[in-house]
TrEMBL record:
Similarity comment: Belongs to the CvfB family.
Residue ranges occupied by any Conserved virulence factor B-like winged helix domain in the UniProt entry: 226-282
Species name: Heyndrickxia oleronia
Name of the featured protein: S1 motif domain-containing protein
Conserved virulence factor B second S1 domain: residues covered: 74-134
The Conserved virulence factor B third S1 domain, residue ranges: 142-213
One Pfam family matching this protein: CvfB_1st
Amino acid sequence: MTSLEAGTVVTLDVEREAPFGYFLTNGEEDVLLHNSEVPEEFDPEKSQKVFLFQDHQGRLAATLTIPTVQIGIYDWVEVVEVKESLGVFVSIGISKDILVSKDDLPALHSLWPTIGDRLYCSLKADKNGRLFGKLATENIMREVAEKATRKDFNRNITGWAYRLLKIGTFLLTEENFIGFIHESERKQEPRLGQKVEGRIIDVKEDGTINVSLLGRVHETLDEDAEKIYSYLQVRGGKMPYWDKSEPEDISARFDMSKAAFKRALGRLMKAGKVRQEEGWTYIKE
């Protein structure tokens, strides 16, 4: 028979009642379901599905609350406490919060999650049975990701930063799109787990997206002008399209008529944002 281990979900029978709760058993080992974990409708004659964890005294205990985060099972959790000497604590819905070790957090404390931030993680247990939060790897994030399409271009998105690099930040959006924020598309680096709001400036062939956290060009510029300017940004500030480009080329790239393209380009030029030269359009420095 498998021994009882923290971080697992098991079905146990009630062995006996005690002044401070009920002892549950698998026939060989007992574990305490504390009175604070016992609901009014509790039926000691029935088998009980429980989640096992170490209580604040380090003893194996049971709860009828089954968290969505378990060993090998990932979900979003919220940061509820930060201790620089240890790491950050997250709530998984049970009476004891779970530590994400400082060893798994960014080297800079300024990039650590703060209270209210969200992390995508599962659980892991050390050799003593203590549970810790386990941050999702890139492979895990790819498994849960959904693919964006060209129709999502220029949409506003909300997401949470899950991977920090020198050149930029990876995030997972509410739609489960994997996004990348290049360092040039943000004013400051988001924290791990921070909620960010931006817009999609490119959709890649694999369905991932590039995101900008910077404000739009100008409030008076319409959607067509914004689409053209966003494309210019992705192209490094230049594109092989101008007001004399062929209508079919414009339609294929921007999904707009030549007349709409010329109007939008005119607004950008009037605003001093772009210039045209020999069949190309450039962002003005």
